[in-house]
Amino acid sequence: MDFGTIVEILDSAVRLGTPLLLACLAGLFSERAGIFDIGLEGKMLMAAFFSGAVAAVTGSAWLGLLAGVGGSMSLAMVHGLASITFRGNQLISGVAVNFLASGFTVLIAQSWFQQGGRTPQLSGHARFEPITLPGASAVKDVPVIGPLYSNLISGHTILVYVAFAMVPLTWWVLFRTRFGLRLRAVGENPESVDTAGVSVIRLRYTAVAITGVLAGLAGTYLATGLAAGFVKEMTAGRGYIALAALIFAKWRPVPALGATMLFGLLEAISNRYPNIDLGVVTLPIQFMQAVPYILTVVILAGFIGKAIPPRAGGQPYVKER
Amino acid sequence: MEKTPKWVDVALIPFLNLLIAFVISGIVVLLIGEDPIKAIKVMVSGALGSPYGWGYTLYYATNFIFTGLAVAVAYHASQFNIGGEGQATLGGLGVALVCLALPWPHWSVALVAAMIGGALFGAAWAAIPAWLQAKRGSHIVITTIMFNFIGASLLNYMLVNVLRPRGAMDPATARFARETYLPTFHDLPVIGQFFSKSVPANISFFIALLACWLVWILIWRTKLGFEIRAYGRSESAARYAGISPVKVIMVAMLISGGLAGLMAINNVMGQGHRLVLNSVEGAGFIGIAVALMGRNHPVGVFLAAILFGFLYQGGGELALETTIPRELITVIQALVILFTGAFDNMLRAPIESFFVARANARKEA
């Protein structure tokens, strides 16, 4: 395996890790505010469809982005309504959101485009195009740094850079602003936030809305950046892998970057080498695909450092009377 | 404090929630430019209008009874088992291994062995998440989701690399011997005349009914069931009463996984006669909707399973006869879960306060 191949695999890992990263940060906001969200998959799928559909019709990836975020946001509000206003079971609501997206997207796609539940192939400005960073072609031939800069760092779509920028931004918002402090408090001990005179309901809705936007970006990237259009069930479990990454990262933004890129790397490796021969045993592709889930179970089991979720997670807040 | 009448809780509120789910589904059908009334007609005639339709409706319902009961039993112990899909997948593996292992002389012997195989594999797949929840406090919802994916990968591996007959292209096991085929409704005395030859509904349906009854006995007529319900209502009270949380979680989840695994006698042994990829077809998830709608009671689960069997078969016909894709059923399923589960308080709160106010007014008068 030469250096060029390694750069290629890493590049592919970044592409595949980006939707996971966006979805993981989406889940981070919601769960830090005490709203469990197993509906990331559904929100991404909804965003993937609406971004793909609107981009196909208008020929603009940016309008697609807007529609994608809108689609994701509508499901985020359903989840908010169920878990905050009606104090329902957040897990059940998440399950419902996933099925709603899974059925609805195919139904509408078939009705609008009659292509068996997919959108037309996107091309030109309907997709987010790769951005060549300044100097990428100039340093291309410099050894080591050249390929790293021009192939790995440069040449991604805007959404990839947005996703990476979201990591420090999320950290800053959560740990350096008053809003972030309150958001974390509402996920640990909503009574204290309420006592301080801050609206629990409003905070939680805000968190759920941020989740909607970020999951919308994740889905939009799938349909208009990674692929060229929406295909039925195109999220293919990525929402759950993002959830796994969130637990893996113990609900912290910087480790979330590490976890999602690790899972992206695993996918990139298994795409390139379906069966890995370790000499003693050959790892089949099915094992590689299951690794993120197995790792998550191991982490949850607490054998490698314990993952403790926000304390008030999953519980509706009932104001004392 | 006055309580609301029981019929409101078990009949009126589920009915209204279901009604809302269907009305919204109708609006969705309108939105995609189709006629909802026509859609209902196609579904009813497709699912109930012929022996063929009935046979499929009951076949699907059998799957959903098993997975619905699986969710319900776990739910009584306040465990949300979202892993029915994976447990049923593994159950399929167990049933297939049993069917292929020996030259079975008669289907009845094979069925008993297959039931044990399916239930054991299903229970085993629930055992690890259950143990992690009971001993290490790992959230069962997340671990069972992860086990669904791991189970899918495992089955994929087994079918592609181990069980696929030499020379075969598609990832599936060999066909089972004829002797293991379960009698279909057509083969049965008396009721056989009502069903056509090709129906997949088979005697697993009666085993599903038996399972409903046994679950009822277990939950409401045994000490173990009492412990499960007590723990489900209040962990601290149950602990104080000397009930072991580890035991309750483990037992409830093993039974739950076993029930989900048992589903495979219907879809693998009764219908497919071999194990293919994705033979569960989402039945594990539909079990969630079925249990929610059936209020986790076996009778409710049975009725809800019949309804979803109808929807599933009707939806298939809908896709054949109209331009509405069968994913409409997924939307209906989602709306049923949403309204009977997550949005339950939307109607419950106002309706309950209405009945309580009425009862109070009567008392004063």
Automatic annotation (TrEMBL), chain A:
Species name: Thioclava marina
Keyword Membrane: yes
Alphabetic keyword roster: Cell membrane, Membrane, Transmembrane, Transmembrane helix
Lineage: Bacteria, Pseudomonadati, Pseudomonadota, Alphaproteobacteria, Rhodobacterales
Subcellular location(s) per record: Cell membrane
Spans traversing the lipid bilayer: 12-29, 49-70, 91-113, 158-175, 205-228, 278-304
The name this protein goes by in its record: Sugar ABC transporter permease
Topology relative to the membrane: Multi-pass membrane protein
Keyword Cytoplasm attributed: no
Automatic annotation (TrEMBL), chain B:
Protein keywords: Cell membrane, Membrane, Transmembrane, Transmembrane helix
Protein's UniProt name: Sugar ABC transporter permease
UniProt membrane topology term: Multi-pass membrane protein
Keyword Flavoprotein tagged: no
InterPro entries attached to this UniProt entry: ABC_transp_permease (IPR001851)
Subcellular location per the Swiss-Prot or TrEMBL entry: Cell membrane
CDD domains linked: TM_PBP1_transp_TpRbsC_like
Spans through the membrane: 12-33, 53-75, 87-104, 110-128, 140-160, 199-219, 240-263, 275-292, 299-316
Pfam families per UniProt: BPD_transp_2
